[in-house]
Amino acid sequence: MENSATFNPLFGTTHSPVNAHFSKNASDFVVRENPLYEFSRSGEHLVVEIQKKDLTTSDALGILSRQTGAKMRDFGYAGLKDKEGMTTQFISFPAKFEQALSNFSHEKLKILSTTRHNNKIRIGHLKSNHFFIRLKKVMPSEATKLKEALKNIGNNGYPNYFGYQRFGKFGDNARSGEEILNAGLSGNKSMMRKFNPKLRDFMISAFQSELFNKWLSKRVEMSHFAGEFSVKELENIYKIDKAKATQIKSQKQFFRLIPGEVLGHYPFGKVFLCEDLDAEVAKFVARDRTSMGLITGGKAYESVGFAKTIEDEIFGEAYKFGKFMNGSRRFAWAWLENLEYKYNEEVAQFTMSFTLQKGSYATVVLREILHREIFDE
């Protein structure tokens, strides 16, 4: 199993696993980046829209660097794209190198379009990603399950876990990140120098990501329990009073909000505390805001009350590393946009497409749809 050492969080859905074959190749997994803003069409930066397969973003930049003479630090991009599949994204670099692309040709990298812009593209300058996924060997009975799962997730949303990509082939990135943080805490400089700064930061982010997944899995568990157990049972399970248990139990949507947690305007906007629970639940159901899970570290917006108690159970041991990590908040619950799907019984193939906000993983959504670990095959 590719991610066997990684914590596998709870599913938000309850349907049985779907039997379908998924291969993350250029024909069956396609990603198209949607930029955060329109490019100005003028300026000193050239913006190229590239299409790549079997290449990481870094691989693609290396190819463009060798072709143009631009240095790696000259390139700008909104986010990293996977090596597997067919991916399209926007890259910027100084326009003075444009002429060097006139005869560009590469079997795994194409330039789809070029334009100009005033500024270098920066990490995060990304609105969303659009995904196309093809599943094979899908029998009619499994196609019916897929349709029902997609309707459910399309209506109710999904837990926005970090995907397996964060945790490494053997699922040990988070453990390495924790070791680095412990070394920093104990003053072990040799251990801190074992990794280059970028790799060190990535390992630490994997540690933060695993804690986020554990916390979100706990919240998904609470949401399942709220639908299955009585108010009295919820009081006993979570050691809360009747009023809080009733607030959680009485909500009609699957993912329950809790007073004192951090919320954020969806899909963009400021974070704030959940104070008027009834009002915020109504806006959550309208997809106007969502729960914001903790990326533990310094300067993260803090929750209060019962919400803080839940966070402390998961993140408490990591608070000591606060000075080594930048804290933030991340959507805990998110929704699909532009969802479409189709079943071709003749070739036993099921295709789907949808748009996800930046930072969300299509493999996480597919795991939820198939209701199993997708790389166990």
UniProtKB/TrEMBL annotation:
UniProt entry keywords in alphabetical sequence: Isomerase, tRNA processing
Alphabetized Pfam families for the sequence: TruD
GO molecular function, one term: tRNA pseudouridine(13) synthase activity
EC number, as in UniProt: 5.4.99.27
Superkingdom of the source species: Bacteria
Keyword Transcription regulation: no
Function: Responsible for synthesis of pseudouridine from uracil-13 in transfer RNAs.
PANTHER family reported for this sequence: TRNA PSEUDOURIDINE SYNTHASE D
Family of the protein in this entry: Belongs to the pseudouridine synthase TruD family.
Name of this chain's protein: tRNA pseudouridine synthase D
Gene name of this polypeptide: truD
